[in-house]
Design brief:
heterodimer, A: 474 residues, alpha/beta, D-Maltodextrin-Binding Protein, domain 2, 6-stranded mixed β-sheet, 46% helix, B: 313 residues, mainly alpha, 2 domains, two-stranded antiparallel sheet
Chain lengths: 474, 313
């Protein structure tokens, strides 16, 4: 959900200022299609080159170098006839547009990233992506991925994408504040409301939130309240068209969300929620001005900038699942998301070699686990991990999250993230229009009715990604 | 009048002269067209072609990636009932009104005051003009930090106990966000107008000012009776430029608020971008673009009409 651009924002605001300035200057000087940065590596004679675009605004970022040395180089060593060019594209928020334009003109990369199944599905249906079903069978990808993950790449019977970034939304907190106050983690609505009232009374924001850097990130809250109030069963039924999003259970979920928003429990106030930058939100939690923040697992990659030695404080971070806001909803519950996908361009001259790259990327579980340990978040593939799969040096809290997330789908304690399972138009409606609920311009009932209407259209058009079945796949 | 009959030789010489002249003119015309051809081709390629394509796609149901399906005026009919489009048009109207008054007034004042001084004039012109040369992404980021609700200027004033500034949001407030973004855009724009107006003011005959002074006129009278009429064509041009730029406003709004919060700063440009690239409704977005183009054309036609009617614009 959180692409490199927004990771950059959250990491350091000052760095962003410089980076955006450099980015704009670079873009204006070099032109749209010249902004990609290739690693200066020697090419093998007569090697087939596979291009892989990555949205990376700062090509000097550690992760960019890591991709070159820990993905491209070892792949090429293992596959002497193939050169893998991982190209850092500094297109910022225009990345998708530039990518689509390049693909439509017959250019673009062999390996095509996208921001999720809905987006990749749109490209696939437009004939820009290859059906990878043959490669999936050849390499046994279905068995390598978590059982449900393969299906998220299927649209209209074609397998267009490999899920790339497994995510979930959790609550992060600073241990110090909870120790000082003697608070326990609230796990249900009654406890949460009593605790939040107490926290507000003490001048502490219960949950720091903000969309000052990212308007569409309101979809985190809708995801949480749909799943943790309406419940994953209701969401699944709505995603499959059995019930409508105008059902009272969704209206009640949005009503509750708005009540918490108006009470200042989510950010401090409505104005604060619309103003707070990611840095402000994270600092509030780290400094004990706020108790929790609700965010996705991508935050794990920059968490140490706010907590512990690297941040210059002695506050440790902890994590918990959002409370169950209705008795019928299980706790804990992990809304599952695929934050990005990988596909092969229909125009690729070397689809076999590109498929070989993808297979190498997904195949070795130890290698994947090491990547997650090195950069938690952006390279988390949806594979079935056990605790012992991860390196011993890895932060045990991070291990717990990823093992728990993997197990959740097997045990049925999973939900559905909006940025993965909602079709494109309904998804934009979901995060744009809910803001009008917060400003009292739109009622929760009207909001849900509008969503139901759009969703029905997109469901009929075959634009809805296949949701994970409620009965765990064997 | 006595008619003079030219000799056949003279006639022949004259005819040859006319022929040479015509030939030279034809050669010049051809050379002119040859020089223009690359630019015409470039225009056809990057302006006319995409314009025709945009108009065609505005008549289709197209997601921007796949095949376009012809739907006639369906997108335009939908546009007429689109609440978000209407809201965006209202914001554009407010924005236009704002930019037709505040920066132009500031630009006129700044230019007039600068025209009165000679020392440090260049320095001030430079200072005023610098924001215009900075990339919009950088300007926007600077002002996002200055107006940051938690650490920005107003937060500091609030902490110092200045009344009204504690918990004061600009870009996060639905009431203030539009004005906040307009402030940032104006900050970079008005200095440009100062330079434009100052250049126009320099063309005014100094004797006209002297005449006002001899009549005992004030500075205000100088400005009203000499400066304003003297720069009228420039002023009208700036007004025209402002209206068209306001119809197309996009960059500052998109960088700072992306049209939010809750659509409070949504402009036709940002809405068009979202419809095309987030909602994959490129056909519908094209219809929005064509509508805005028609509005711009109407303004241009009015301008030409005024010129033809003899207005000094």
């Amino acid at each position: 959900m959180c692409n490199d651009f927004c990771q950059e924002i959250r990491t350091n605001r000052r760095r962003l200022l410089g980076a955006s300035g450099k980015g704009i200057l670079g873009a204006s000087l070099a032109g749209t299609f010249l902004t990609g940065r290739r690693a200066p590596r020697a090419k093998a004679q007569d090697a087939v080159t596979v291009e892989w675009w990555v949205q990376q605004d700062n090509a000097d970022a550690p992760i960019a170098e890591y991709r070159r040395t820990n993905i491209a180089t070892p792949f090429e060593e293992a596959n002497p006839g193939i050169t893998l060019e991982i190209i850092d594209r500094a297109d910022g928020e225009n990345f998708d547009r530039v990518l689509a334009t390049a693909l439509q003109s017959g250019a673009g990369p062999d390996i095509v990233p996208s921001q999720g199944p809905a987006h990749a599905g749109t490209m696939g249906k437009a004939g820009l992506l290859l059906d990878l079903a043959g490669y999936a069978e050849q390499y046994g990808w279905k068995d390598k991925l978590l059982p449900w993950a393969y299906d998220t790449g299927v649209l209209d019977g074609k397998f267009y994408m490999l899920p790339n970034e497994l995510e979930t939304t959790i609550m992060y907190y600073g241990q110090k504040l909870f120790d000082e106050k003697g608070w326990a983690i609230p796990t249900n609505r009654t406890d949460f409301e009593a605790w939040a009232t107490d926290a507000m009374g003490q001048g502490i924001i219960p949950v720091a939130m903000g969309t000052g850097d990212c308007g569409l990130c309101t979809n985190w809250l809708v995801t949480i309240f749909f799943n943790h109030y309406a419940g994953p069963d209701a969401v699944y039924q709505a995603l499959t068209g059995e019930i409508q999003f105008s059902d009272p259970v969704f209206v009640d979920a949005i009503t509750l969300l708005n009540q918490y928003m108006q009470a200042g429990w989510l950010g401090g106030s409505v104005d604060d929620y619309f103003s707070n930058s990611f840095d402000a939100v994270h600092s509030q939690v780290a400094e004990g001005k706020a108790a929790f923040t609700m965010e996705g697992t991508w935050f794990l990659s920059t968490l140490n900038s706010f907590f512990g030695e690297e941040a210059g404080n002695d506050n440790a971070w902890g994590w918990a699942q959002p409370p169950s806001f209705r008795d019928e909803v299980p706790y804990p519950l992990f809304p599952v998301a695929i934050g990005s996908t990988l596909s092969i361009s229909a125009q690729s001259d070397n689809p076999d070699e590109a498929a070989k790259v993808l297979d190498w990327y997904y195949s070795d579980k130890a290698r994947v686990a090491q990547r997650i340990a090195d950069f938690p978040g952006p390279m988390t593939l949806p594979l079935a991990f056990a605790k012992e799969d991860f390196p011993a040096t890895m932060d045990p809290r991070v291990v717990d999250i990823y093992v728990g997330l993997g197990n959740a789908t097997a045990q049925g304690s999973f939900g559905y993230a909006a940025w993965t399972f909602w079709p494109p138009k309904t998804h934009v409606y979901l995060h744009d229009e809910v803001q009008k609920v917060f400003t009292n311009e739109l009622s929760p009932a009207d909001y849900c009715a509008g969503m139901a209407e759009l969703f029905t259209e997109e469901l009929a058009a075959g634009a809805v990604p296949k949701p994970i079945p409620r009965t765990p796949a064997s | 009048m006595i008619e003079q009959v030219s000799s056949p030789r003279a006639l022949s010489t004259s005819a040859r002269g006319v022929g040479r002249k015509r030939s030279r003119m034809r050669s010049q015309r051809i050379a002119g067209w040859l020089c223009l051809t690359p630019f015409i081709l470039l225009n056809v390629l990057v302006i006319l072609g995409p314009s025709i394509a945009t108009f065609y796609y505005s008549l289709t149901d197209w997601n921007g990636l796949g095949t376009a399906t012809y739907i006639g005026l369906g997108n335009y009919r939908e546009l007429m009932h689109d609440q978000n489009f209407r809201q965006a048009l209202v914001h554009v109207a407010i924005w236009t009104g704002l930019f037709l008054t505040v920066p132009i007034a500031m630009g006129l004042l700044g230019a007039f005051l600068l025209s009165q001084i000679t020392r440090f004039q260049l320095l001030f012109r430079l200072i005023y003009f610098i924001p215009y040369t900075i990339a919009s992404a950088v300007n926007a980021s600077i002002w996002k930090n200055i107006f940051d609700k938690n650490q920005g200027m107003f937060a500091q004033l609030g902490e110092l106990g200045v009344p009204g500034f504690s918990n004061f949001a600009i870009f996060g407030s639905t009431d203030r966000a539009l004005w906040g973004v307009a402030w940032v855009d104006n900050w970079h724009w008005w200095g440009f107008l100062v330079v434009i107006f100052l250049a126009a003011m320099r063309t005014i005959d100094a004797e006209l000012y002297d005449a006002v002074k001899i009549d005992g006129g004030s500075r205000w009278r100088e400005f009203r009776d000499v400066t304003l009429p003297g720069i009228r064509p420039t002023l009208v041009f700036v007004v025209l430029l402002t209206i068209i730029a306001s119809l197309l406003v996009f960059d500052y709004v998109y960088i700072i608020t992306q049209g939010g919060p809750a659509g409070a700063t949504e402009m036709v440009g940002t809405l068009l971008y979202k419809r095309a690239f987030e909602l994959f409704e490129a056909g519908y977005a094209a219809a929005m673009g064509v509508t805005m183009t028609i509005m711009s054309v109407i303004i241009m036609v009015l301008y030409r009409y005024m010129q033809r009617r003899g207005w000094d614009v």
